Structures are given as C-alpha cells and as structure tokens.
Request: fold
Amino acid sequence: MTHTTDIPRDLGAVALPATLHTALRLAEQGLPVLPLREGKGPMGNCRACRNNACGGRPNMKTPGPCTCAAPCHAWAAATTDPNIITSPAWAPAWRQAAAVAYHPGGAGFTVVDLDNPDAVAWARQNLPETRTVATTRGEHWIYRGSVVSRNGVRPGVDIKSVMSYARWLGAGTGAVAQLPDVVRALAGKGPTAVRPASSVSAPAGGGQCPHRSPAYLERGIAMAEQRIEEAPDGIHRTVFRMFLAVLSAHGRCGCLTETHIGRLFTAAQTRGESLRHCEDAWTNARTQLGM
Reply:
C-alpha cells in the first residue's frame, strides 16, 4: 500500500455523495479507505463471501486471497485505488455509507483511541503531544509508525493500527509525532498470543438436537465469529452476546465441542479480548441460560 507522508489536513470542497468525495481525497493522499454503515460498522460481506465462504481473509488476519470486487471483509477491503473506490461494485455501499473509515496501519500510522475523559487525561500525562482529533466521547491521538492493533490496553484505551480501521472524523490539530515506546509496549511486540481456554468446557448435552445437518452448527459458529471480528466497539458486550447466542442455539444437545469453543475464543482474542474475559463471558452465558 502507498504510504502517506502526513495525515491530510484539508479535504477541500465537499461534493455529493460526501462520503465518496472524502474517501477519494483521503485515498489520493495515501490513506486506505472503506465505507462504514450506520453504527460505525463495516459493510457486511456479500453473499458470495458471507461467513468467509470465499475462503479469503480468515479471521481478517490478512488482506487476501479473496478477490471480491465489493467492499467485503471490513478493514481488509481498505484501498487507495480510485478505480476500486468508484467501481460499480462499491457504489451501493457508498449510497448506504454513513461515514468513511481508514486503515491506519496500511498507511504507517497508529491511532490511540481514547474513549472517555479519564483516558484523555491519562494520555496527556503519559504520551507525547501529537495530532489529535475530537471524537464523540474522547479523542484520537495519531502517531507515525504502526503496531499490532489491540483493544482494552488500558481502561478506555484501544490501539488501532495494523488489521483495524478508524473512523475519519477530520484532520485534527497538531503535528504528527513518532510512535512512542509506551504505545509500542501497550500493543506488545507481536500479535496477541491466543491461548486455549483453561477452565471452560462444552455442555454435556442431553437435550433435543435441533440441528438438521452439521452445516447448521457450522453456520452458527461462523456467524458468531464474524460478528465478533466485525464489532466496531463494545467488544466485551459483543463477545458475551455471541457466546450467549451460540449456547442458546447449540449448547443443550451435546453437539458443541471444545473445537467450536476454541474458534470463538480465537475470534475474541484476535480482537484484543483477554483469556480471562473470554472465560468469564462463557461462564456468565452458561449461568444465564441455566446450564
């Protein structure tokens, strides 16, 4: 991907649709972009790619090998190619788009997402000054340099860089500083280590099996994985809801295996959820369902 020399400052006059105009200007200046639907989430995968049926971008860890022309697979769809951005395949998404997002890591940047006043206060005390952008509840602090994205590194603090996206909220103010060691330390030196569940198990079963075929269970697990992977925020709530949904539909007949649980935990930990939070969410979901 093309690397920009700076975060754009001036988007110029807005044309219709505004989201498409913004996306083209950002892409021109080196930021890989993608459309966001209402609620700040990425566009859902097309029918051919639903539940990763296309075989590409497993768990959204890589930008390939799927070659779908639509803006599928969340952050992995981000591009600076104007021919793709203005293609007929992307046109429906722009008509629905409520906002524009960009892939910070794809342009060599990191966004420290500060989600509340306490998180902003922490940043002002511990991080060097840099470009800041006001958000609904806090601020984005933008640094030059990329790391592995990780959510919940501190209360109210997420790191959005490689394999993530950030909503474009304007150019902000201040000069972009180099990524400080404290942020690198919070993100870690490599991808989050996904550890197996140590204290959870699949329900013993004994209930009536509602599955018409093994594909029914597979679709349920795949859908839960995708919902977790594409959750724009509130990852703790999303993980709990998906664990609850899977257990409600598949937890009483004995078909749910440790392998299925491992897939759900992997999806959650890839999004930055800790093993402890995964185990707690699983236990709480079973308790709520009386299992």
Remarks:
- Residues 1-5, 10-16, 57-64, 189-197 have pLDDT under 50 and may be disordered.
- Residues 113 and 140 are 5 Å apart (CA to CA).
- The longest strand covers residues 109-114.
- Strands lie at 33-36, 99-102, 109-114, 131-134, 139-144, 150-154, 157-160, 166-167, 177-178.
